[in-house]
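Pipeline run #58 for the internal structure catalog. This entry was flagged by the ingest filter as a single-chain record with no existing model, so it goes straight to prediction. Upstream metadata was stripped on purpose; only the residue string is passed forward. Reviewer on rotation: M.T. Logging verbosity set to normal.
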Amino acid sequence: MQRVQYLMGLICMLFFWACSSSHSSQYNSNQKFDAAALREDAQILEKILESNHPSLYWYTPKEKMDGYFAETISSIHDSLNEVQFRNKIAALVSQIHCGHTVVLNSKAFAKANAKIRPPQFPLAVKVWDDSIVVTGSINTRSTGIRRGAIITSINGRTNREMLDSFYKYISIDGNVATYKSQRVSNNFGAWYKNVFGLDTSYLVGYIDSTGAERKERVRIFKMPVFDKSKMDSIQKILAAYKVPTKKELRKQRRNAELSLKFDDTTGTAYLHLAGFSVNGLQKFVRRSFKQIEDHQSKNLVIDLRDNGGGHLNNSILLTKYLAKHPFKVADTIAAINRNFTYGKYIHQSIWYWFPLNFNTTKMEDGRYHYHRFETKMNKPFSTHHFDGKIYLLQGPSTFSAATVFTGSLKGQDNVQIVGEESGGGYYGNSAIHLLTITLPNSKIQATLPLFRVVLDKNRPMGRGVMPDILVMPNSFAIRKGVDPKMEKVKALVKK
């Protein structure tokens, strides 16, 4: 089945490239912007963040943050292309230590790169601590480096040198370093290209499955070029297979995002939620807990390892089925400004003016609070409430509203959190409403959260939700295709 799905995906990609290869984008990634214009962009960004970012000085004192801006602006004395300027701004913004404040490419850059598949580093990897372990290869025939191989260097650069070079551009909540590792794992090739550029080949030092140290040169991967002259043969191949309808594709995507399975031999339900903004999530959650009750499941495993957050109300809904006592969302949810002095650079700022001015209350600290969230006690559901043993699987990709959820249940006597430190902050974050800043000259973008969220003022500040049972990745499990976190949970259930 997986082989057929892979072949179908490949055929569809070939079809896309055949159709799009004759079209070239007008965007020029090497175009350079005048230094004065880029300095103006950086100055505008500083003014916007000072005016509306709720936590600009939460982890970094104002004097230091002012110094970082001044240093960045003064360092722009030559013209730069978009990637060079974006890197400067990303390194600057990372000093805020806010995982929701992220620097993005311009729309033109993103659109141009969506039409073509540029050359790329040929290996996929998993990163943690100083470890870089191969999880796959775009073309296994062109390399002897197999899944589970431990990379020690690439083109003479050590793991630590590469990772430190990548990490300075990544924004995180507080000091949650695991989130940086996951971001690099998600697209190692893009980070390598962004920092070191493309090479025609890569000399990879690695340790194989026998423990032997080896070196191998692997070629850069280039997608084959197809043109319309090959359309007839591609269409014949496509005709031999049933191409999924849009409805079928939506169903497949939803099943990958939301799923509920049962193991009646151990009385365990396995619930997977890939996000809290998935369409139909509320209906799915309500139906799931009715089914869990019907199955009389004694154990519930909720997999949130790829849950990057989403709508806070959906996180609250799920918590109501599991919490033993009434709970509050947060101690503080507050903005620093109701107005947008630089609204012309902020996408849809007019629409967010309304909730800021009609749903918030100015308090003694001078901030504008979502007082309803700060005071309302959410009562657990009595119908279909689950009272058995709960195992929460989390990892570095567990972020934002997903961290709010796991953090709210941490310490409950029937809950165990298994995995790694969450990517989102345990103490709090800056989120709720996320706007997009577009700088006028370079057109690069940055996200702007409007509210500082202190989930619980008594929690330690600066780290993610810590697991009750730590289960780290390892090269042996990757090589064997084993899921150590899920295996640990299954062992706990049997025990």
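catalog note: The radius of gyration is 24 Å.
catalog note: Confidence is low (pLDDT under 50) at residues 1-11, 13-25.
status: ready for reviewer M.T.
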